[in-house]
Structure formats: C-alpha cells, structure tokens
C-alpha cells in the first residue's frame, strides 16, 4: 500500500461506542441530510438500466502508455460543486467539468477521467443507494466496460455534518452547546467503522484498480491574522480547524485499515483558504446558488487539488 506524505488536513446499526442514529438525534442542528433534499429521479435510474451507461460517465477511454484512467466517486469535493456551470443532465449532483478529477487530464502525463460519479451532498450511503437522482456510485463503477486504473474517493464530510457547521457559523455561531464534542465523538468513534466498510465495498467493486482515498483540504485560515471574515472569531476558527483535522485523521486511519491509499490535500490551498485575501475557496452563502458553492474550492482551488492528487498518482506508481 502506498501513502502520500503530508499533514492531516463527512450502515446501519451501532458502530464504536455510540449508536449512529441516536447520536444524530441529540440536536436539531445535527441533521446530516439538511439542508439538502434527497430525491430519487426514477426516470434517470430507468435510463441507466435501459442504456447500460453510467450516469456520470465522462467518456469511455483507454489509457495510453504512461497515462492512467480514473473513476471519481464521492461527494461535492470531487463533483466540483464550487466551479459552475454544472452538467445539465445531472444538475442535482452539481458535477462540473472544472472539478479536480476532470482537470487531471490537463496535466502531464494525463490521467483520463472515465467516470465522474461524485455527487454533491453524498454520504457513504451513496455508494450503495441512489442519491439526488443518481444511481448508486458503485453500480456506475461496475458498469464500466473496462476497469479503471484508479478509483478516487472523497467521502465522510457529509456524514459528519461538516457543511451544517459552516452555515451555522454565519447564521449564528459555529457550534452550539456541546455540539462540537458530539461531532468529534461521531468522527472519532462511529465514522471509522463506516468508512472502513465503505472502502472495502469500493475495493470489492473494483478489485483490479488502485483505490485512492483523498482527504479534505483545510478551508479556514490557519492563523487569525489571515482571517478577513468578521463572523469567524479566533475560538471558532480553531474549533473548525480541529474538526477538519480530526476528520482527516479518521479518514487516513480508515484507509490504512481497509488497505487502500490515502492522499492528503491539507496543504493544497495553503495561503488561499476561505476568508484570506487571495482565497481559492467560495465564501459562505446562506441563500440561492451561493449556498451550494459555500466553502468549496474555486477553479484555482480545483487546479491546486488536481496537482496534489496527480503528483500522488504518478509519483507513487
């Protein structure tokens, strides 16, 4: 197993020391599906079955010598949610041609994206269940005519309710009484087993591919002196950074336990985090289109992430 170097940067039943459902029910703000509405578009699913074509396919391709083919699974940090316009056929998943998995093809040597199944708002359940009108991501992966060289995956942030914390920061405060501890408990005690099981399912779906789990970038300023957002005070900035780091530690360890690779993107946006003067991260918006873009990398941020992952894919072969 190969690991990239770098500092740490969201199925049923009980896992670890807590019951997952009970943990989420402790606070009204900790509803991992909010603010999203999960809708299954049966027409799309039917087309998938009839046509036999993965819903998020970027285009069938065979890797030339020295290059790689890549299938990208996961959530908004792989779908490219911060870089509109989004593909009209899959608007609910907010997949963008400017997402870092697609930008891998622009680097040298190119890594051609043959499946872009990542979907904004996806939780670990999206691997085996439809979400936002898109078929289960592993179903799309298995439908590829040729196994990809690499399967990348970003997942876990929505399970942990990370986006809700960010919205709460602007609307009132980042963490309610005890909420930061409850989220840390979930990330450290419950999420590890969920992720290990998820990674093993991906391995089973693509037994001949490299499985590369990609961590989340740090999106808040690393020091208060760099912070230009009045809504983010020193204490909350530290709490957000701590939760982000805890999430990445959990993801890295789960990847190791499942026998898959891990790539850290913790330093990819360094100096360009949200609330910095030259930010590569979209600011928090509470309404309309700006809400979905919130705290997601811009085009410049996606390019930085692509370079980080590209380096790991080719340097570690």
From TrEMBL:
Residues 72-304 form the SGNH hydrolase-type esterase domain. This is Hydrolase. One of its GO terms (molecular function) is triacylglycerol lipase activity. It comes from the Bacteria. Keywords: Disulfide bond, Hydrolase. The keyword Hydrolase applies. The active site is at 76 (nucleophile), 296. InterPro entries: SEST-like, SGNH_hydro, SGNH_hydro_sf.
